[in-house]
Amino acid sequence: MIKALSPQEFVEITSYMQKYNTLNGSYRNRDKSQRGRVPIVKYMDSCYDTRSQEFWAISFRTWGAAKITLRSNHFVGDDGRNSPYSSLYEWCKAFLDGEWEATEEFYEKN
After folding, report:
1. Is beta strand 107-108 parallel, antiparallel or unpaired with respect to 67-71?
2. Closest residue by Cα to residue 41 from 25, 56, 61
3. Residues 72-100: pLDDT tens digits?
4. Terminus of the chain with fewer CB atoms < 10 Å: N or C?
C-alpha cells in the first residue's frame, strides 16, 4: 500500500493542477514541449478518511478521456500495487506532469 495524501499535500496538488493542468493554466504556464503530453483536467474529486485524516483517492476527469482514479486504500479497487511510486502525492504529480501514463485498468468508463 502506498502513502495517502495529507491535507497539506492535497492543497499542493490542487494548486499545482490549477496552475499547470487546466484549460487556461496548462497552456499559459507549461513549456511548449510539454503542452501536448500533460493532461488537461476539467474536474477533480477526492475521498477523505476522517479516521486517518488523509485523502486516500484522487480522481481526475480530463478533457477527451474518461475519469482516472489513483488510490492508496486497499479496500477498494487497485490499492496502488501497480504504482511505481511510494506515495499518492508522487503518483498524482507524475500523472499531472505527463511522466506516468495510465493503462486501461485505471480509467472508469462514462
Report:
1. antiparallel
2. 61
3. 875 555 545 567 899 999 999 999 998 99
4. C
